[in-house]
TrEMBL record:
It catalyses: thiosulfate + hydrogen cyanide = thiocyanate + sulfite + 2 H(+). Residues 19-142, 170-276 form the Rhodanese domain. SMART domains: RHOD. It comes from Nocardia alba. This is thiosulfate sulfurtransferase. GO terms for molecular function: thiosulfate-cyanide sulfurtransferase activity. Pfam families: Rhodanese (PF00581). Its EC number is 2.8.1.1. The keyword Hydrolase does not apply.
Length: 282
């Protein structure tokens, strides 16, 4: 069985677009006013004007479900949300969907993950994003596509997920990775929400990157070596975004990992759930 690669290079994307293949490109941006406390993204003035030609402009919030008091920051979208977006963006079962973000790689990897979770067949993360496109000698566009008429089937639940109970169990019986920075993991400084799920190991999502690109397979295998024991692996972060970089990186070396979409922002909605602090799993 052919395994769909999770990542595409700028050169391969350019070749597919030049050939007229059924490619749908999504440029994902986040609204700075809705970011969690402590998260800072570059402004529009920090990068070049324009986008990969033909890319749809996507608001990150379009792929976030309704929030509740216990949902965490970025709950999964409802099936109807994804179906409407598939129709709007003109995605078919035969389409190759390519996702990138000028904001942060994890913004793109989260949308890559959500679309794969929703059952879309061929979703790729553009390695290096817009910088890689420009480095390949390609031009930027200033027009957005009309889209519409997408017919792809949506099948939510197509990737493994964790809830609070299964995340706690995985931290005991497998490998649960915390993709936040080491300070948040340890509960350092004046961060009242700091700490981690007991038993979880720190592996920041940013560690998967080298100069904006995913690290090569040998580096990733070395990075994840302590957790490649055959036991199940899962990842979480503050709101279920940065952790998708762990899931993406592992998928490039043939390892499946579950995501805890609610992550720390959901874990901490229940004061009875335990919190470990310090640099060790606890």
């Amino acid at each position: 069985m052919t395994v769909t690669p999770p990542v595409i290079s700028a050169l391969d994307l350019a070749a597919a677009l030049d050939a007229g293949d059924d490619v749908v490109v999504l440029e994902v941006r986040r609204d700075r006013h809705t970011l969690p406390v402590g998260v800072h993204l570059p402004t529009a003035d920090d990068g070049p004007a324009g986008h990969v030609p033909g890319a749809h402009l996507v608001d990150f919030a379009q792929l976030v479900g309704p929030r509740t008091e216990t949902s965490g920051n970025s709950p999964l979208p409802e099936a109807a949300q994804v179906r409407e977006l598939v129709r709007r963006w003109g995605i078919h079962d035969s389409s190759v969907i390519v996702v990138y973000s000028p904001d942060h790689p994890s913004t793109a990897s989260r949308v890559w993950w959500v679309l794969r979770w929703a059952g879309l067949r061929d979703v790729r993360y553009l390695d290096g994003g817009l910088s890689a496109w420009l480095a390949a000698g390609r031009q930027l566009g200033d027009l957005r596509p009309v889209g519409g008429g997408g017919t792809a089937q949506v099948r939510p639940g197509s990737l493994p997920t964790l809830d609070a109970a299964s995340a706690a169990a995985l931290a005991r019986d497998g490998h649960l990775l915390d993709a936040r920075g080491s300070g948040a993991y340890a509960g350092a400084g004046d961060d009242a929400a700091g700490g981690h799920i007991p038993g979880a190991h720190s592996l920041p999502g940013i560690d998967n990157l080298r100069d904006g690109y995913l690290a090569d397979a040998d580096i990733l295998r070395e990075l994840y070596a302590p957790y490649l024991t055959g036991a199940p692996i899962g990842s979480y972060c503050g709101g279920g975004v940065a952790a998708t970089l762990d899931v993406l990186a592992l998928s490039t070396i043939g390892v499946s990992a579950a995501l805890y979409p609610g992550s720390w922002s959901q874990w901490t909605t229940d004061p009875s759930r335990p919190i470990a602090t310090g640099a060790l799993p606890g």
